[in-house]
Write a structure and sequence with these properties.
single chain, 389 residues, alpha/beta, Rossmann fold, nine-stranded mixed β-sheet, 35% helix, AB_hydrolase_fold, Alpha/Beta hydrolase protein, AB_hydrolase_4_sf, hydrolase, monoacylglycerol lipase activity
Amino acid sequence: MFPFLGSPVKIYSNPETVKINVRNKATKETNEIKLLDYISKKCPSLIGKNAVYYPTIWLPNGHLQTVYAAYANFDGIHLINYERQLVETPDGGQIAVDWTPPISQKPFDNTPTIVVLHRLTGGSHESYIRCLLEVLITPPHNYRAVVINFRGCAESQITSPRLYSAGVTDDLRTCLRYVQKCIPDSPLIAVGFSMGANVLVKYLGEEGENTPLIAAVSVGNPFDLVGGSRALERTYLGKYAYSPTMATNLKKCLKRHEHIMKQDKKINISYGISSRSIREFDSRITSKCFGYETVDHYYRDASSYFYVTKVRVPLLCLNAEDDPIVSAECLPFDESIYNPYCILATTYCGGHLGWFTGFRSPTRWCIKPLSEFCIAIFEPLRLGVLLTI
C-alpha cells in the first residue's frame, strides 16, 4: 500500500437506506430520495470519484498522523471565540458549554446549530473542533455551535464527586435539554469525536426516535471498548505509549479535582493516580465511580457498538483503518449495513483524529466530508424546504 497514491473512501451502508422526504413548503410537493443517494449528490468528499484522501507524504501511517495531531502546534490558526455558560446537573454537578459565535454577538434565534462532543480529556479548545467550526459558523453558512465540555474538562471545575465516562449519557441529555430551552426552534446536528462519539452513538441508540437531533456524526469512535482495550494492549506502542499517555491525562484531571473527588468513598485517589495504563485507571477509578463490578463490565456496558442498529436519525460514522487507538476490527461494519439510517465511511490512512493532507502546513482532510454532511442536512431548511424521514 502506497498512501501517497491516495486512500479512497469506502462506504458501508444498507443498500436500501432510509428514504428522506424533501417537501417544499411553498408548493407542498414532496420528493422522496434515499439517504445514500442524497449524500452522494451533496457530499463529493464522501462518495464519488473525488472521495479520496491523500495523506501528507511525511505522515504516511496512523502512528505519525496520531502523534502529529497530538503534538503539533495549532496555536494562532482556526481561532474560535466562545462564550461559556454552566449547566447544572441533578446531582449538584455542572457542565461547561461553550457557544460560538458568542451569545453577546449572536443572540439566540432559530439558526441551525452544531452540538459538539470532544475526545477523552479534551475540550472546545482543541484544533480538530476549531477547524470544523471555522468552516460552519462563518459565511456563507453562518451556523451556530455549542461545545459540551465533559465534567472537569476544558478548565472547568467539578462541583460534585463525579467525573465522566464513555458510557454515561445522562449529562448529554441534560445539556440537550438546556440547548433546546435556549434555542427551541433551532434544528440540531451533533458531532462527536473519539470518546465523545461513543457517548453520542450510545445516546442515539438509547433514545431511538425520541432524540431532538435531526442527524449526527461520529468521528474516530472506538465503538467496542473491550476489543479496543485488548487491541491496544497487544501492541508495543499501544501498551507503552498510547495507553500510558491517556492514563496520564486522566490522572491529571483526577488530581486537579482531588479535593472534590475524595468525597467518593468508593475510590482510592492515590491508587488511581498510580495507574500506569488507561485500563488500570478505568479499573481503579472509572468503573468504581459508576458502580461497575469490573473494568470489562464497564467497557461492555459503555460500548456504542451495540447501539448502532438502534439509531433512528441519519448517522455518518468516519474512521481511519490505521487508527492505532481504535482498532479496525472493532468497527461496526455489519451493523452499519444492517441499519438503513447509518453510513460508515472509512479510509485506509488517517490515524486517530488526524487525516492530515498537504505538505508544508498540513490541514485536516476530514473537515471536508464532515462539513459537507452537516451542510447537506441543514441546506433544505435554509432553502425553505422541510427535510423529514
